[in-house]
């Protein structure tokens, strides 16, 4: 085992475990809501890193589709489990087998997300005209037209499809939407579910395997498709963007429930990514770096723009050089002091694709 | 020499400390060693280290104390600008070791102070100066933490056993002693 | 372990250097034949120190406990501390009347460098006691002082 630092090569890494709830701290960053006048979805969309969990799928050839140096690109981490996936998807160069690094320092890649459910806005409320039933509502952004499907106790299958575990209680229905930012989604009255059907205990947690969640929201969009390709399934698959939001329902007082989002998953071009917020990315050097801007500079050298995040705590607070330097002396995140398991470089400046 | 290869971070921190001093805190590097700072901390209000209110004009006070780099900003957290004082001004020294910011700054009080977490030599028992140091902390945050320590003495984690015992058994009396010491030693003169 | 600047460009100021030395002295040094501590715990400038050297084996000094006074002025460690024996001793570098360690006859003080410490002085004095010209000199009675 040894330390290994690379800014240019990607390599296999140890399996990623879901991080604990991030601690509250002064770098805690929440994506800002989008103002109606905003022409971009990205203030919000940028606040994630994406982690693939499915090694077989991550071996799919990387497709360059509509890449433009614009807003809406996520930094992405593709996590390959084991050595089977020893292909560098960025440069298509084989990676030499080498000892697993103690702490992996890798670079993030970006994909664009066409649809995003604001997880902080997700609610279940009593259907006024049908008081036994609950309706889902949330705010979302969509760059293209698409649809939302709401599932209860849905099991995630390998291919990204979901099946309700109790179809007798609720049959999912696709609800279409048009493109637009900051839209409010309300589940139509009468299409809700009686949550009283389920045990409170079951509502408040996922299955032990983390594949069944009490509430699953699938939001998908389709790029406008050239008619000649309409019947080509693979193209369709490529163009489909789907964001899955998996949540549990916690009983508050009375009949009201609090929705706690556990995970968001993104399917882009047939690849599954997991979305995680990064704290501090919103004040990073997205719009160029000004020497006097204290929010964008590395907390250690206070000179270089910060471009490296710590996992599992997800604090983006350092430049690459200082991250290396820190690792020689400490294994604790400078912001929250949690142990560092991995470092990831995240370049957000547009135009470097 | 002493100031060659001074890391940019230290230069930046110094500039910011001088241009935007934290309320009630001033820190300026010494001329011959840019890693060595002269520090003044005003005792926080409603603490035994609080500045005593003497009827001087602000201008007089500044002449008498002669210590604040930017008096209006520095005293921002104080009471009205007309109240003024020559008490509750604590002198400290701070040094940035070679390993800084990977290692904590070294800080101590030069003004005598009656506080359970500060010893006779002015050494300070504060976790962020020891095992809880993080390179994300700065001179400014360290000094603010020390100022906060004056508002919240912690006799359960003492550096001065006698003072801590005094604090735990006869708090009112200990606070009086702290006030007396503030008056005697922290005049800022 | 080297206290102080140790060849780098970073200069540890006097007070922090003395605090380092104090902490090191409090922890105890080596085999314990050399030790030192501050005289006045209230003196924030840490000027007066007492050092102790136990006489080295196979010399006339063996088993004797020598007390010394060290004074670190404002210009320490740029300048060496003044050092004098409190316990009477007969060695070449110590003034017979006053007990002062004479810098001219003690190389460490004569060629003082900023990185040198009080520990270095005491250790070097112990070595001095064991030199051929000092190890057999007739000594004053034990327990007498300058």
Automatic annotation (TrEMBL), chain A:
<feature type="domain" description="RING-type">
    <location>
        <begin position="298"/>
        <end position="337"/>
    </location>
</feature>
<comment type="similarity">
    <text>Belongs to the RING-type zinc finger family. LOG2 subfamily.</text>
</comment>
<protein>
    <recommendedName>
        <fullName>RING-type E3 ubiquitin transferase</fullName>
        <ecNumber>2.3.2.27</ecNumber>
    </recommendedName>
</protein>
<dbReference type="InterPro" id="IPR045195">
    <property type="entry name" value="LOG2-like_mRING_C3HC5"/>
</dbReference>
<dbReference type="GO" id="GO:0016567">
    <property type="term" value="P:protein ubiquitination"/>
</dbReference>
<keyword id="KW-0519">Myristate</keyword>
<dbReference type="GO" id="GO:0008270">
    <property type="term" value="F:zinc ion binding"/>
</dbReference>
<dbReference type="InterPro" id="IPR045194">
    <property type="entry name" value="MGRN1/RNF157-like"/>
</dbReference>
<dbReference type="Pfam" id="PF13920">
    <property type="entry name" value="zf-C3HC4_3"/>
</dbReference>
<keyword id="KW-0449">Lipoprotein</keyword>
<dbReference type="GO" id="GO:0061630">
    <property type="term" value="F:ubiquitin protein ligase activity"/>
</dbReference>
<keyword id="KW-0862">Zinc</keyword>
<comment type="pathway">
    <text>Protein modification; protein ubiquitination.</text>
</comment>
<keyword id="KW-0479">Metal-binding</keyword>
<dbReference type="Pfam" id="PF26192">
    <property type="entry name" value="RNF157-like_N"/>
</dbReference>
TrEMBL record, chain B:
<keyword id="KW-0833">Ubl conjugation pathway</keyword>
<protein>
    <submittedName>
        <fullName>UBIQUITIN-CONJUGATING ENZYME E2</fullName>
    </submittedName>
</protein>
<dbReference type="GO" id="GO:0005524">
    <property type="term" value="F:ATP binding"/>
</dbReference>
<dbReference type="InterPro" id="IPR023313">
    <property type="entry name" value="UBQ-conjugating_AS"/>
</dbReference>
<dbReference type="Pfam" id="PF00179">
    <property type="entry name" value="UQ_con"/>
</dbReference>
<comment type="similarity">
    <text>Belongs to the ubiquitin-conjugating enzyme family.</text>
</comment>
<dbReference type="InterPro" id="IPR016135">
    <property type="entry name" value="UBQ-conjugating_enzyme/RWD"/>
</dbReference>
<keyword id="KW-0547">Nucleotide-binding</keyword>
<keyword id="KW-0067">ATP-binding</keyword>
<dbReference type="InterPro" id="IPR000608">
    <property type="entry name" value="UBC"/>
</dbReference>
<keyword id="KW-0808">Transferase</keyword>
<feature type="domain" description="UBC core">
    <location>
        <begin position="5"/>
        <end position="187"/>
    </location>
</feature>
<feature type="active site" description="Glycyl thioester intermediate">
    <location>
        <position position="125"/>
    </location>
</feature>
<dbReference type="GO" id="GO:0016740">
    <property type="term" value="F:transferase activity"/>
</dbReference>
From TrEMBL, chain C:
<dbReference type="Pfam" id="PF00179">
    <property type="entry name" value="UQ_con"/>
</dbReference>
<dbReference type="InterPro" id="IPR000608">
    <property type="entry name" value="UBC"/>
</dbReference>
<dbReference type="InterPro" id="IPR016135">
    <property type="entry name" value="UBQ-conjugating_enzyme/RWD"/>
</dbReference>
<comment type="subunit">
    <text>Heterodimer with UBC35 or UBC36.</text>
</comment>
<feature type="domain" description="UBC core">
    <location>
        <begin position="13"/>
        <end position="146"/>
    </location>
</feature>
<protein>
    <recommendedName>
        <fullName>UBC core domain-containing protein</fullName>
    </recommendedName>
</protein>
């Amino acid at each position: 085992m040894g330390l290994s630092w690379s800014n240019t090569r990607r390599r296999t890494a140890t399996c990623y475990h879901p991080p604990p709830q991030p601690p509250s701290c002064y770098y805690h960053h929440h994506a800002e809501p989008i103002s109606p006048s905003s022409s971009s979805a990205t203030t919000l969309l940028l606040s994630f890193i994406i982690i693939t969990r499915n090694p077989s799928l991550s071996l799919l050839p990387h497709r360059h589709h509509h890449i433009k140096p614009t807003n809406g690109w996520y930094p992405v981490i593709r996590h390959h489990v084991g050595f089977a996936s020893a292909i560098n998807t960025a440069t298509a160069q084989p990676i030499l087998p080498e000892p697993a690094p103690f702490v992996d320092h890798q670079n993030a890649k970006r994909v664009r997300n066409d649809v995003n459910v604001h997880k902080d806005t997700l609610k279940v409320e009593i259907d006024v005209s049908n008081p036994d039933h609950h309706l889902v509502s949330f705010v979302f952004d969509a760059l293209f037209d698409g649809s939302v499907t709401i599932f209860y106790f849905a099991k995630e299958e390998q291919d990204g499809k979901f099946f309700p575990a109790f179809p007798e209680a609720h049959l999912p229905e696709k609800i279409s939407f048009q493109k637009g930012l900051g839209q409010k989604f309300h589940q139509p009255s009468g299409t809700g579910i009686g949550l009283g059907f389920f045990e409170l205990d079951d509502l408040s947690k996922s299955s032990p395997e983390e594949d069944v969640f009490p509430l699953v929201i699938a939001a998908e969009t389709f790029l406008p498709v050239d008619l000649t390709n309409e019947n080509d399934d693979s193209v369709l698959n490529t163009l489909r963007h789907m964001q899955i939001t998996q949540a549990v329902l916690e009983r508050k007082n009375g009949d009201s429930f609090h929705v706690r989002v556990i995970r968001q998953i993104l399917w882009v071009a047939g690849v599954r990514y997991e979305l995680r917020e990064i704290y501090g990315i919103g004040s990073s050097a997205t719009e160029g770096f000004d020497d006097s801007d204290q929010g964008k500079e590395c907390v250690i050298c206070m000179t270089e723009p910060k471009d490296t995040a710590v996992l599992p705590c997800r604090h983006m607070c350092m430049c690459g050089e200082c991250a290396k330097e820190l690792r020689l002396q400490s294994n604790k995140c400078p912001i929250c002091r949690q142990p560092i398991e991995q470092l990831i470089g995240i370049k957000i400046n547009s135009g470097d694709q | 020499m002493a100031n060659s290869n001074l890391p940019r971070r230290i230069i930046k921190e110094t500039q910011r400390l001088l241009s935007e001093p934290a309320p009630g805190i001033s820190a300026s590097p010494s001329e011959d060693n840019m890693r060595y700072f002269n520090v003044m901390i005003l005792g926080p209000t409603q603490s035994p280290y609080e500045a005593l209110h003497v009827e001087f004009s602000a201008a007089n006070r500044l002449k008498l104390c002669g210590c604040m780099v930017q008096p209006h900003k520095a005293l921002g957290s104080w009471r009205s600008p007309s109240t003024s004082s020559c008490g509750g001004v604590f002198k400290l020294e701070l040094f940035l070791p070679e390993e800084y910011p990977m290692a904590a700054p070294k800080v101590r009080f030069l003004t005598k102070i009656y506080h359970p977490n500060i010893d006779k030599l002015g050494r300070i028992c504060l976790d962020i100066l020891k095992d809880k140091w993080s390179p994300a902390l700065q001179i400014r945050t360290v000094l603010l933490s020390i100022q906060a320590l004056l508002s919240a003495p912690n006799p359960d984690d003492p550096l001065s056993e006698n003072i801590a015992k005094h604090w735990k058994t006869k708090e009112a009396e200990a606070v009086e002693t702290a006030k007396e010491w503030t008056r005697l030693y922290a005049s800022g003169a | 372990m080297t206290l102080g600047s140790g060849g780098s460009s970073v200069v540890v100021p006097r007070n922090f250097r003395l605090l380092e030395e104090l902490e090191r002295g409090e922890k105890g040094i080596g085999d314990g034949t050399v030790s030192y501590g501050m005289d006045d715990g209230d003196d924030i400038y840490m000027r007066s120190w007492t050092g102790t050297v136990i006489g080295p084996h196979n010399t006339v000094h063996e088993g004797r406990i020598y007390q010394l006074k060290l004074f670190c002025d404002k210009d320490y460690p740029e300048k060496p501390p003044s050092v004098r024996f409190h316990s009477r001793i007969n060695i070449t570098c110590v003034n017979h009347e006053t007990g002062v360690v004479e810098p001219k006859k003690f190389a460490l003080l004569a060629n003082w460098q900023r990185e040198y410490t009080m520990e270095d002085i005491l250790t070097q004095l112990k070595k001095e006691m064991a030199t051929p010209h000092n190890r057999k000199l007739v000594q004053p009675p034990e327990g007498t002082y300058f």
